[in-house]
Design brief:
With 157 residues, the chain is α+β, with helices and mostly antiparallel strands. The protein has helices at 13-23, 58-67, 112-125; strands spanning 5-6, 29-38, 44-52, 81-89, 94-102. It has a domain at 5-43 and 90-125: Alpha-Beta Plaits (2-Layer Sandwich). Helices cover 22% and strands 25% of the residues. It starts with a strand and ends in a 32-residue tail after the last helix. One of its GO terms (molecular function) is endonuclease activity.
Length: 157
């Protein structure tokens, strides 16, 4: 599938983890996805995008780092542009249920409660370290925290 890009039918656990890590990530914790609940019917759409079809070889980058000569790192996008078709999910909504565990990198003063408080505070405010996305950066993921007293939306059958 190198030519045409096709989305999975549902968000992957690694994509869900990426959204949670955008809100709160530290080496001391590891997110574990318990459930991804689909709230809207699965629908696809096709779109065409211009993409750059070449990369600067890693050897050239290493050489430039050693020598400081950056002239070989130039890549002219107009000369390497390719039109690619992507089949993507559209109008999606999910409920992600997850928890985290402390890793071996956690200090003695770090607790699950501390990290849960940080995550909850940031999620309530809509704060994130970087804008979460689904797939590539063009497909921004909006999120909100479902409060403990709030009814969790049911998924579709």
């Amino acid at each position: 599938m190198k030519v045409e890009r096709v989305s999975y039918d549902v968000m992957t656990p690694s994509a869900a983890r990426g959204i949670l890590e955008a809100v709160h990530w530290k080496p001391a914790i590891r997110w574990i996805i318990d459930e991804i609940r689909v709230l809207k019917p699965v629908r696809f759409q096709s779109l065409r995008r211009n993409e750059v079809g070449a990369k600067v070889p890693a050897g050239r980058i290493r050489s430039a780092m050693r020598t400081g000569a950056i002239g070989d790192l130039v890549l002219v996008a107009d000369e390497n542009r390719q039109l690619r078709t992507s089949t993507i999910l559209c109008d999606v909504a999910y409920v992600i249920s997850a928890h985290f565990e402390l890793t071996a990198k956690a200090d003695a003063h770090e607790t699950l409660a501390k990290h849960l408080d940080i995550f909850t505070r940031r999620a309530r405010k809509g704060q994130c370290f970087h804008q979460p996305c689904l797939g590539t950066r063009e497909f921004v993921a909006d999120f909100r925290l479902i409060e403990p007293d709030e009814r969790v939306p049911q998924g579709i059958s």
